[in-house]
Amino acid sequence: MTQATATHAPLATSRSATGIPTGRLAIWWVLASEIVIFGGLLVSYIMLRVHNAHWTAEASHTNTWAGAFNTIVLLTSSLSAVLGHQAAEKGDGQGAARYLWMTVGGGAVFLLVKAYEYTSEISHGFTLFRDVFWSYYYVATGLHGLHVIIGMIILSIVAVDAAKGRNLHRVELIGIYWHFVDVVWIFLFPLFYLAK
Amino acid sequence: MNASPETVHETHPAHPDYIKIYLILIGLFIVSMLGPLFGVPALTVVLAFGIGVCKAGLVVAYFMHLNVEKRYIWFILITMLVFMVVLYAGVAPDVMKQGGHNWQHVVTEKGPPAVANH
Amino acid sequence: MAGTAARDIAIERDHVDVGWGDFARRYLFSTDHKIIGLQYMFTGMFMAVIGGLMAYVFRMQLAFPDQSVFGYGLVSPLAYNALVTNHGTIMIFWVAMPVLIAGFGNYLIPLMIGCDDMVFPRLNRLSYQIFFLSTVVILISLVVPGGGFGGAWTAYPPLSASASYNHTPYGAPLWLIAVALEFVAFLLGGINFITTVMNARAEGLTAYRLPIFIWMTIVAVIVFMASVGPLVAGAVMLPFDQVVGTRFYDPQAGGDPLLWQHLFWFFGHPGVYVVLLPAMGVVAEIITVFARKKLFAYKTILYTTFATGVLSFVVWAHHQFVAGIDPRMAHLFTIMTVLISVPISEMIFSYIATLYGGSIELTTPMLWALAFVAEFLLGGVTGIFLGSSGTDIYLHDTYFVLAHFHYTFFPIAIIATFAGVYYWFPKMFGRMMNETLGKIHFWGTIISFNVICIPLFITGVAGDHRRIYSYEHFSQLATPGLQELRVIATIALVMMLLFQIPFFYNFIKSLIDGDEAGDNPWRANTLEWAVPSPPPHGNFAEMPTVYRGPYEYGVPGRAEDYWPQHEPEENPSPVNG
Q1: Which chain B residues are Cβ-neighbours of C203 within 8 angstroms?
Q2: pLDDT (tens digit, 9 = 90+) per residue, C494-528?
């Protein structure tokens, strides 16, 4: 039982004592660790927000419409991600890839809107340094944006594979990650844009 | 027990109508934005976050298929959220509310000085 | 001679020629869990030497203040702070975690659960590479202009946030980046470990048949994952303060330095259990083998491991009793801290019960395992004084704290590690280590260790303040007349470092011409002993099936006093899953 090449997946990867495919089990644990990372950041923000009454005034300068638009963009991209999963389950690699590219597109629109927001805010003097509220705003939305970028990269890789009919099981996995990115935004939006 | 990822047999119930869930999500989202119209801050917060939780629940249950996943995955994720509640509970008395019975937190009570530029 | 034959056979099996490209592929960029485990182990051992030499320098400064230290020179206050900071940081993040969790875990988990590798071998390689990068960064941080970060491993702002306070404009951010990278490496590794143990177990290896080492390592990894998140968030905010100029931790700007403390210790306290549990796992495996006896109360130990993991999340502020936290929280944390000593003592006493009535074989690994139990017990009971807020008000920041955590960390990072190295060396390298040299190493280390740390308890109770580079300049922070004790501790440290020489000599000599080990020199039950030493790529020629638990020693009616897990029998025990 020798495997001379390192790229050959070991037998271990295909086992499933829990009944859950290994890749999906791993993604759930990745999400678990992400919950505590974002959770820690947002819990800190919430405590300081309650403590610092003047943050409400600062928060009034975030662009609610841009944030709302972005929420709808991400929700829609989540829809396309899950439709991609549905297609992949039927074995339709091309269809799955199309939906995944739509999801990537959604992510791109999200980032463009964010870029517009940041530019507009910075040019009005609402920089990272203006107040600790803004420090949190940029770090939290920035960290989220970083996860969007990473998600888009992996979505693209999976889409390219899926179009060739390969590794269709990964469509579901990157979908789960993307939905998580969406869920984080579902909470970021009220925290930074709505509570004014 | 030994199964490749593609062939782990899971009986899926019929897929939910994702588009319907999506429209519900959009509808909920619009409602959550209506808070400021009423001018009651508490209502705004409740609507915004309460509906946020509902939306997150829908995404998690239906899009991420957690409603058909093994039970303990819920448990793992909720445990992480519980730890965040523990973090909040342990830290909030110090960071969120900084008054004390026998001392004054001068910076808090007098407010921070005008923010200097770096 | 026989060893080289085994190596030749291994090479033949893999059908490769050993050239430089192959050397790189097989040993530097391997995805094989055994090679990656060894990479972590050797990196950790190297960093242990660095950490130990740091201790030598700063203890020399304490014993003979303001005199040039042999091999280093004069120790300035900034240098002292950098040495104690990095000694602590390195020992926890670059010695204890990589050797106990990533080293032993990577090497043993696939073997003990009966599969051919981790489920994500390339992710495994990536996590080592990120870890290696973190090692390079922390070492660079020591030599950049301004020197290494000196704000203590706890890195409290504003000292850590502002170069105008810490005087290490490059060292501080680099230190933080190194720690952050280490976290990322272990998060990735953790995903691998958990998924592998959950999914890739051999046929018949049900939950209660897992070696307790596996359970403890998995609980440790889950505790790490859950607790490090908020600190990752905090460690994103702190470099922004350091480098970019934000004021997340500046109360003048609406931030809060206490927030960092909480975020840090929310990880920091579970963090000590992250390293304790695998160490206890190693010790459990060793004492059962060398007492030839079943582990006492396996299920109870398992449930108390879970309880310890959960409880570890609600004790953290006992590190902050004097930081100005809400006193009502101090009540709560005192109670929880004293409570957590219960499950841990239960585990230690179960180990003692395991030994009772056993056929004890005092091999070198067994000596180290027994020393762990004794020393950790001492460390644990001294923790009660610190966990109670009343006594902690006096003892906080004294050498008592130092002695307490060295009586706990030293067993974890050093004693349990040596126990594991001496125990699994035959499996990893196909050779036996020399027992005589092992015993000299053991007694020299253990006696020296106690002579270092007992004086520290005494000086601590007398009021010696920690993290002070020289009591000559700050005499109000120490009790006069105790300099002799400080000198004794330092001399003992030098002795202890010298006693590591027999270990290194033994290690290298045994690698070259130690006695051939065979598959199962210790006559143990767990699956790693069912494969050749060292195991070939792919581990098992035929994937094993498991028929019983791992601690079936001294079963009545059998010819042998052990019963390997994979050995079939006429009436397999019912799956009790």
Answers
A1: 1
A2: 999 999 999 999 999 999 999 999 999 999 999 99
- Nearest Cα of chain B lies from the Cα of A24 at a distance, in angstroms, of 9
Phi, psi of C203 (to 5 degrees): -55, 130
Span between the terminal Cα atoms of chain B, in Å: 60
Q: Judge whether residue C570 has pLDDT over 70.
A: no
Judge whether A128 is closer than 8 Å to chain B, CB to CB.
Answer: no
Contact A48 C236 (CB under 8 A): no
CB-neighbour burial class of residue C332 (10 A; exposed 0-12, middle 13-18, buried 19+):
middle
pLDDT band at B110 (very low <50, low <70, confident <90, very high): low
- Residues from chain A that touch C158, judged by Cβ atoms under 8 A, are none
Q: What is the spatial distance between Cα C441 and Cα C436, in angstroms, rounded to a whole number? A: 9
Question: CA angle at residue A11 from A8 to A12, to 5 degrees?
Answer: 115
As given in the structure block, the two tokens for residue A66 are: 């841009």
First vs last Cα of chain C: how many Å apart?
45
Q: Is the dihedral of CA C462, C465, C469, C474 positive or negative?
A: negative
What letter would DSSP give residue B114? Answer: P
Instruction: Give SS3 for C467.
Output: coil
Q: What is the pLDDT of residues A119-169, one digit of tens each?
A: 999 999 999 988 899 999 999 999 999 999 999 999 999 999 999 998 999
Q: How far is C227 from chain B (nearest CA, A)?
A: 8
**Cα(A195)–Cα(C451) distance, integer angstroms:** 60
B15 and A86 within 8 Å at the Cβ level: the answer is yes
Residue C559 has pLDDT above 60, yes or no: yes
Asked if A68 is an interface residue toward chain B (Cβ–Cβ < 8 A), one would say yes
The model carries a pTM of 0.92
The answer to whether B86 faces chain C, any CB pair under 8 Å, is: yes
| Selected residues 173-192 of chain A with any CB under 8 Å from a CB in chain C | none
What's the burial of A57, exposed, middle or buried (CB within 10 Å: 0-12/13-18/19+)? exposed
pLDDT in tens, C425-483: 999 999 999 999 999 999 999 999 999 999 999 999 999 999 999 998 888 888 888 99
C117 φ, ψ (degrees, to nearest 5): -175, 180
C201 touches chain A (CB under 8 A): yes
Record: contact A10-C254, CB cut-off 8 A? no
Nearest beta carbon to residue A12 from set C115, C237, C263: C115
Spatial contact of C220 and C274, defined as CB atoms under 8 Å apart: yes
Report which of C174, C241, B107 is spatially closest to residue A135, judged by C-alpha positions.
C241
Helix (H, G, I), strand (E, B) or coil at B40: coil
Q: Cα distance from C534 to chain A (closest Cα, Å)?
A: 14
Q: Encode pLDDT of A90-109 as tens digits.
A: 999 999 999 999 999 999 99
CA A116/CA C52 separation, integer angstroms: 52
Peptide bond into C158 cis (omega under 30): yes
Contact call for residues C390 and C451 (beta carbons, < 8 A) = no
Interchain CB contacts (distance < 8 Å): A and B? 139
Q: For residues A65-74, give the mean pLDDT.
A: 95
Crossing angle of helices B71-95 and C327-355, in 10° steps, is 130
- Residue-wise pLDDT tens digits, C381-418: 999 999 999 999 999 999 999 999 999 999 999 999 99
Closest partner CB to C116 (pick from A12, A29, A44): A12
Look at the block and give the residue holding tokens 């610190």: C386
Look at the alpha carbons of C208, C210, C215, C221 in this order and tell me if their dihedral is positive or negative. negative
Do the Cβ atoms of B33 and A194 come within 8 Å? yes
B90 and C329 in contact by Cβ < 8 A?
yes
Chain A contact set for B3 (CB, 8 A): 14-16, 21
SS (H, E, C) C485-519: HHHHHHHHHHHHHHCHHHHHHHHHHHHHHCCECCC
For residues C63 and C486, the answer to whether their CB atoms sit within 8 Å is yes
